[in-house]
Amino acid sequence: MAVGKVSDTTFESEVLKATGPVVVDFWAEWCGPCRMIAPALEEIAGTLNGKVKIVKLNVDENPQTAAKYGIQSIPTLMIFKNGQMASRQIGAAPKQKLEQWITTAV
User: Fold this and answer.
1) 29-80 residue pLDDT tens
2) Which neighbouring-strand residues pair with 40?
3) Where are the domains of the chain?
4) Closest CA to 81 of 25, 24, 22
5) Active site residue 34
6) Residue 30 to residues 2, 10, 13, 21, 81, Cα–Cα distance (Å)
7) Does residue 43 have an active-site annotation?
8) Which CATH architecture does the domain made up of 4-105 adopt?
9) Residue 57: helix, strand or coil by DSSP?
């Protein structure tokens, strides 16, 4: 399962109303650390196929959702369960740490 994309208009249906846990990567095109963790998130999405949904939200193109969740630094990753934010990770981290954080939280 590949990493998907969400926007201000699809965030509620794709994340908040999802049946399982969802990892949201708040990122921007110009952000080096965001681009650094992207391949790791793709690999994790494949490894955890079906257990968790991973999506990206571009903060430049979707300022409403970023503001609603108080995103001040990117990359910021959040795990949502049952429409509620369950965990937050700020900044880039190695794949192993990201995978451990996601599997522990879901």
Assistant:
1) 999 999 999 999 999 999 998 899 999 999 999 999 999 999 999 999 999 9
2) none
3) 4-105
4) 22
5) yes
6) 22, 23, 27, 28, 29
7) no
8) 3-Layer(aba) Sandwich (3.40)
9) strand
